[in-house]
């Protein structure tokens, strides 16, 4: 579930952050010793919430469209 440019941190130039319109990400040094920044973590949380909400809507829609259970003999 891509974010597009819906998250303010993806277009804010005050701090370099990982992530793109396609999704959350983190920038790391060559030695891998950089933890994700607070902004990168917030972008990831936002994407996680969007995926969870979409999943909830899909599951709810399937329940609405599912045929009723067959009657037991």
Explained architecture:
The chain is mainly alpha-helical. Helices cover 38% and strands 0% of the residues. It has one domain. The longest helix has 28 residues. The chain is elongated, with a radius of gyration of 19 Å. The model has no long low-confidence stretch (mean pLDDT 83).
Top keywords for this entry?
73 residues; mainly alpha; 1 helix
Write the layout of secondary structure elements.
Elements: H1 38-65
Low-confidence stretches: none
| β-strand number | 0
Distance between the termini: 44 Å
Return the domain count: 1
Radius of gyration from CA coordinates: 19 Å
Shape: elongated
Pattern of helices and strands: H
Give a quick summary of the entry.
With 73 residues, the protein is mostly helical. The chain is built from 1 helix and no strands.
């Amino acid at each position: 579930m891509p974010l597009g440019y819906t998250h303010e941190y993806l277009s804010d130039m005050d701090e370099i952050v990982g992530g793109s319109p396609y999704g959350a990400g983190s920038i790391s040094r060559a030695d891998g010793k950089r933890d994700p920044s607070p902004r990168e973590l917030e972008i990831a949380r936002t994407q996680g919430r969007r995926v969870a909400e979409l999943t909830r809507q899909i599951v709810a829609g399937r329940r609405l469209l599912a045929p009723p259970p067959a009657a037991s003999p």
